[in-house]
Amino acid sequence: MTKTLYLVRHAEASQSVSPDLVRPLVSNGMIDAARMGKHLASKMQGIDLILTSNAERTQMTAQVFCEQLGVDNEIVRVESALYESSPKHYLDAVNGLSEEVDSVMIVGHNPSISYFAEYLTHEEIGSMPTCGVVGMTFENLTWAEVSKKTGHMTFYDSPDGIMGIKI
Fold this sequence. Notes:
The chain is an alpha/beta fold and 167 residues long.
């Protein structure tokens, strides 16, 4: 059985709002999230669950993705442990997933989301741009068995790489 994971760095957020937890997306971030969501809709076979941190910007990014993917926002689950966290917290979230879930998206923050993508794959990801997405699969593994270098990266997209997508 194949498990699929999409790691998303939240879209561009306001720098002028405090505290950090409540920073919303700026208009360019909303546009990038809509374009990326539409782009992903053509690539994805479906999504069972979306995990986000409790930050406003990750939840807004997830909401826009739901709209573009045509899925109900009830599949979004807020995990406060993903805010200001380490790749270990992301791994704990993945390892704790139900086996009924085959496809999951995590909307999170740099640098942890980028480090986590590199940890799971054999790829050098670097610093993911805002609204960047890394897709990966895990063959013949349960979520509890996902660990270092067990993922196969299927794509790495960014808003700059999909400029032709219209919303």
